[in-house]
Design brief:
The complex is a heterodimer of chains A (about 100) and B (about 625). Chain A starts with 5 loop residues before the first helix and ends in a 15-residue tail after the last helix. Chain A is elongated. Chain A is mostly helical and about 100 residues long. In chain A, helix 1 runs antiparallel to helix 2 and helix 2 runs antiparallel to helix 3. Helix content of chain A is about 75%, strand content about 0%. In chain B, helix 3 packs antiparallel against helix 4, helix 10 packs antiparallel against helix 15 and helix 17 runs antiparallel to helix 19. In chain B, strands 1-2 form a two-stranded antiparallel ribbon. Chain B is mostly helical. The chains are: A mainly alpha (about 100), B mainly alpha (about 625). The interface between A and B is small, with 11 and 8 residues.
Chain lengths: ~100, ~625
Amino acid sequence: MQGPAVSWYLAIAGFLFTTGALGVLLRRSPLIVLLSLELMLNAANLTLIAFARQHGSLDGQVFALAVMAVAASEVVVGLGLIVAMSRRRMALDTDRLTSLRG
Amino acid sequence: MITASWICLLLPLAGAIAITLLGTAIPRRTAGFIATASVAGAFVAAVYSFVVMLSRDGADRAQASTAWSWLTAGSLDFGLTIYVDQLAVYMMLIVAGVGALIVGYSIGYMDKVDEERRFFAYMSFFVFSMLLLVEGGNLLMLLAAWGLVGLSSYLLIGFEHERPAAIAAAKKAFIVNALGDATFALALFLLVQKTGTLDYQAVFADAPSLSSTTATLVALGLLGGAVAKSAQLPLHTWLPDAMEGPTPVSALIHAATMVVAGVYLVFRCAPIFEAAPDVQDTAAVLGGVTLVVAGLIALVQTDIKRVIAYSTMSQIGYMFLAVGIGAYATSMFHLLTHAFFKALLFLAAGILIHALAGEQDMRNMGGLRRLMPFTYLAFLVGSLALVGVPPFSGFFSKDPILANALAAGDLGYVLFALAAIGAFLTGLYTFRMVFMTFGGEPSEEVRSRYHPHGGKEGPPSMTLVVGTLAVLAAIAGFLQFVPYWTPVDDFLDPVAEPLVDPTGTMEALASLTAVGLGLAGLLVAWGIYGAKKRSAPRSWRVLQHKLYFDELYDAVFYRPAVATSKALYAVVEGPVIGGSLAGVSGGTTRLANHVRSLQTGAVRTYALALAAGVAVLALVFIGVR
């Protein structure tokens, strides 16, 4: 196997995941929260691919593809919600969006 | 013969089902005709069975027939069996014959009454239950029929369900009868455990070999059922209240069917009772005491139907006395004549109640002899038969009971004395009733109330039946004149041999005593109520309260039960059951309120909780490893 050892990939993935998690926990704009979620998903994808290469099996890559599909649909729904909210001139602040019906 | 007996049993049931299913598709009157036809058909079938039976030899006369296996449990197997012997046929003739007359009478009596169809369906069902009771081929079927009879009497007594008194009377009858059913069932449980069967023949064959304790307990249980059904002391309180039902119901219950079931039971189970002589003596003593007590209470009643009801209790006391000393056939003969004259008295009373727009209080009657000569004549025949004045039927059937009592040893003398007192009381209360109702001149009030419906004194269906019964009550006694000719005794003796055999002297002595005392009672009644309308002698308070039996039961059973229930409600139901339920529901509500505050709706809180959870899990995994 060529390239850096798997631990490097894991380190980067861990950094990305932490960044994403902190973004979800600390930021209040739904758009940024969504973005951070994507970051976390991609961190997970990175570990999947890294281990798949280390073991020389395709399982991890297949999982990563599935995660990407889920992430794409999630973005569609999430962005749609955000657009709908901004059209209704609602505050784009997760701390104020606490009830399902206005 | 057995086919005819099946038809006899099932026709009234078919009638009841047909009336119920056809419902409003048939006119009201047709329901009455269907019921009458089905019961009359049953009578014809019973007569046919009887004739075929007569043509056979003694040994072949009893026959059993099983339709199918009804109930199987382990080695026990109860068939849907009928067992037809001399006793069963004898009872079938009485039940279906008198039943048909009474149902026919009801067509006139119940005319234009609401829910006429329901009435006739119940009447047919009642006759079916009673026929099942006498034809049932094992003790289990007897018990089932016992319950059905109780049920149908409940339905009929409470027929006028808009009157609270009728409902109360129906419930009372049902509960008292259920008490009897319970002791009956207990006796059967014990019997099954000891003998492993409930078939008549098998049980009776085993009866002499039962231990005396078992035999006594079984016999006591059966006696409890018989006493409740036949309204003997101390379970008699339901019978007078049952007068709340329509008059034909009173006639059906008191004359032909339900109340004589106890006498039938003791006769049918004679081998068991003979294995427990103490219990048999108890039955005789209960009968003797009942006949006197009922006669005393009848002296002060003012409701004409209640007087007849107490006279029924009294007459059944005679029958119990007779079966208790082992004079089985003698008791059955009294049952037959009693069915005729008691049905006659009830139905004649029904005609005059009908004509007086429902008036039953004898103090508001009087002088009806002038207005209703036919009813008067019929009632007089019934009364003379009841008192036992020769040559009316009561004379031929009641006097042998006294003679048998004389022949029954030391206890017999006591019973004879009781029966003799009863004879005097019978004369007194019967003719008190006759003079109060029919004697003297009709007052203005009676004249203004008197409105016969249809016909001269009542509809033809009523007067015709009363006329028939009057003839029967007058002449049925000649069926048997001990000791000269005894066809009834000869017919029934093979079922259970009598235990007593009175001599001719005893017969003569008993007849003289009974007739003399009966006539004495009649004369006393005439002296007080007949000669001129005099106010009744100051009645005894004790008697007016029916010897305080109702009050006693109220104090012993009803009040403690209510008090216990109230105490249980206050101590157990309120704090324990109600409290625990309130605690559970209140606790759930409080817990839910706490949990609700976790549900903030803020996404970041959830995310934090999620992350914290994952962190804890990760720590656990690492720590465990």
